[in-house]
Inverse folding.
């Protein structure tokens, strides 16, 4: 059994950054560098025809010969394949970026073996590179489902690394956050991510009794200058902090620290200095069950940019979200993602929309969604608990969901409105 320490309270940024580190390469050279009044509450349609555990069929499959070139060297690395090895797993079609990511990763396995990292809390993380002396960085990052933290043990189906999460579902959440971003026209700039099945003898350590295939999330590797951990927040633009913060609030991120915010340098023709841009990664610990909203973690809550009001354009973008259509699309494309996770997405989106209508800042929204004291529920937790305790919903089973219940969402919106009036 794996014992996990409780989420720490908010610490000064320099101390909080030491608690968690992201498994990323370091290259430090930055010297140049809802519903309105009168509208009817909608419910989310769920396609009951989708079988959650139905095996993948009619998906493109690339057959490989995994009986050759599987010798181990002293670094526990394997010789590369001579054939392709990446199988896309998808209910629906891939977009162009996802297809290109799979193709480049196949070339990576052809050129060099996956390399596992030694850091990070989320479990096994592998870098896929094209190989060769000219290759300075990986092309993609692969996170296997069966190596997520907590997957091994008698209680592995009950509790994940954070409250409300379950081991083995992080790979679906990684893909879900990317798809969520794409459904919002790429506003949040989440790197291209997709679900794949990869074959390689590395997975069975040359034991023929073990499988050579792993299912997991595959994400584009982003070339970056540093993580936000290595830079002062004064270098980040207010729009970037707002973009990252809103994403984290909408997906209820339980693991947003400065180590998993990548700083990318963009050429600025109007300046002698590069423009810095924040790219969010590591989203396996988001969208917990709606009855476990205790572990929100937002490092940006200490940034001064979080206290700056949102622009009109950002407000309009968030308020225009059709969360019911988004949830329906995510469920159709990722049917193995728990419906309770999608219920959380609707709760947080409803709350964020109401807060933006009330002209709250990102700092205020993040504070209302976070526990400031370990033993005291957040304001959002109290609202959700009050709604769930209503006699109409009290007998609701914890593994069921409220996505079809119009009365539930009407009552939730009413309680949020009452809270914000007195806030």
């Amino acid at each position: 059994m794996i014992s996990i320490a409780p989420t720490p309270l908010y610490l000064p940024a320099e101390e909080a950054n030491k608690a968690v580190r992201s498994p990323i390469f370091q290259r430090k050279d930055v010297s140049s560098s809802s519903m309105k009044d009168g509208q009817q509450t909608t419910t989310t349609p769920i396609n009951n025809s989708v079988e959650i555990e139905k095996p993948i069929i009619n998906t493109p499959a690339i057959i490989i010969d995994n009986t050759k070139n599987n010798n181990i060297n002293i670094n526990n690395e394997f010789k590369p394949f001579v054939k392709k090895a990446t199988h896309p797993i998808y209910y629906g079609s891939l977009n162009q970026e996802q297809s290109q990511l799979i193709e480049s990763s196949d070339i990576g396995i052809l050129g060099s073996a996956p390399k596992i990292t030694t850091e990070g809390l989320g479990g096994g993380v592998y870098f896929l590179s094209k190989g060769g002396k000219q290759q300075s960085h990986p092309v993609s990052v692969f996170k296997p489902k069966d190596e997520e933290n907590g997957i091994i043990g008698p209680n592995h189906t009950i509790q994940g690394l954070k409250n409300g999460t379950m081991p083995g579902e992080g790979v679906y959440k990684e893909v879900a956050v990317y798809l969520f971003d794409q459904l919002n026209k790429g506003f949040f700039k989440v790197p291209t991510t997709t679900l794949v099945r990869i074959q390689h003898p590395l997975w069975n350590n040359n034991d023929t009794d073990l499988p050579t295939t792993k299912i997991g999330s595959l994400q584009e590797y982003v070339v970056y200058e540093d993580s936000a951990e290595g830079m002062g927040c004064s270098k980040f633009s207010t729009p970037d902090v707002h973009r990252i913060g809103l994403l984290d609030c909408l997906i209820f991120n339980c693991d947003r620290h400065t180590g998993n915010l990548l700083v990318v340098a963009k050429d600025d023709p109007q300046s002698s200095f590069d423009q810095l841009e924040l790219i969010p990664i590591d989203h396996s610990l988001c969208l917990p069950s709606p009855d476990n909203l205790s572990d929100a973690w937002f490092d940006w809550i200490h940034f001064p940019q979080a206290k700056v009001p949102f622009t009109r354009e950002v407000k309009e973008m968030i308020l225009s979200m059709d969360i019911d259509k988004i949830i329906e699309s995510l469920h159709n494309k990722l049917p193995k993602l728990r419906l309770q996770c999608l219920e959380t997405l609707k709760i947080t989106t409803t709350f964020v929309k109401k807060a933006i209508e009330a002209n709250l800042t990102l700092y205020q929204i993040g504070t209302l969604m976070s526990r400031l004291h370990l033993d005291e529920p957040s304001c959002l937790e109290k609202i959700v608990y009050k709604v769930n305790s209503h006699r109409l919903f009290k007998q609701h089973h914890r593994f069921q969901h409220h996505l079809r219940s119009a009365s539930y969402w009407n009552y939730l919106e009413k309680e949020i409105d009452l809270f914000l009036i007195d806030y």
